[in-house]
């Protein structure tokens, strides 16, 4: 018998999308049709997606799903994500030297010691 208290729990992953993002969903064994949609709600490893655009031959499937379905993050792609990456890669690098980070502020005790001296 497995002790549930000793089983390691998976930590939630950072969702690759946010509510309101427009996504493309690819067809797979778990997703019956490929479509374009909008994120409605985020879950631990998936998202509720409204079905906005789909191929005409998938009309019946989209209607059966009532215009919404839950999709795992690995089947989601943000629309326009590739274009954003390409623009970042094409941006010229600056020849200006990197500036050093500002020093961390002193703690209260260190400030108080200096004031009393």
Tell me what you see in this structure.
The protein is an alpha+beta fold and 117 residues long. The protein has a domain at 22-79. It contains 3 helices and 5 strands, in the order βββαββαα. A hairpin with a 3-residue loop joins strand 2 and strand 3. The longest helix is centred in the C-terminal third of the chain and has 10 residues, at 81-90. Residues 83-88 have low confidence and may be disordered.
Count the helices. How many?
3
Global geometry = globular
How many DSSP E strands?
Answer: 5
**Order of secondary-structure elements:** EEEHEEHH
The biggest beta sheet is recorded as: 5 strands, antiparallel
**Uncertain stretches of 5 or more adjacent residues:** 83-88
Helix/sheet category: alpha+beta
Strands side by side in the biggest sheet? 4-3-2-1-5
Span between N and C termini? 67 Å
Instruction: Work out the strand percent.
Output: 15-25%
- Kindly state the percentage of residues in helix: 10-25%
- Let me know the average pLDDT: 74
Radius of gyration: 24 Å
Biased composition (Basic residues): 78-90
Region (Disordered): 1-21, 78-117
Biased composition (Basic and acidic residues): 8-21
Describe the secondary structure blueprint for this structure.
Blueprint: E1 22-25, E2 35-42, E3 46-54, H1 59-64, E4 68-72, E5 76-78, H2 81-90, H3 108-116
Antiparallel strand pairs: 1-2, 1-5, 2-3, 3-4
Task: From the structure above, extract its key features.
3 helices, 117 residues, single chain, alpha+beta
Offer a concise description of the structure.
The protein has 117 residues and is of the alpha+beta class. It is built from three helices and five strands.
């Amino acid at each position: 018998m497995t002790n549930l208290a000793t089983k390691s729990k998976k930590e939630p992953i950072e969702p690759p999308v946010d509510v309101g993002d427009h996504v493309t969903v690819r067809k797979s064994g778990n997703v019956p049709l490929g479509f374009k949609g909008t994120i409605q709600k985020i879950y631990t490893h998936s998202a509720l997606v409204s079905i906005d655009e789909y191929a005409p031959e998938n009309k019946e499937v989209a209607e059966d799903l009532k215009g919404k379905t839950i999709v795992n993050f690995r089947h989601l792609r943000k629309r326009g994500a590739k274009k954003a990456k390409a623009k970042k890669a094409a941006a010229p690098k600056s020849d200006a030297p990197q500036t050093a980070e500002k020093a961390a502020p002193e703690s209260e005790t260190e400030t108080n010691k200096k004031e009393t001296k």
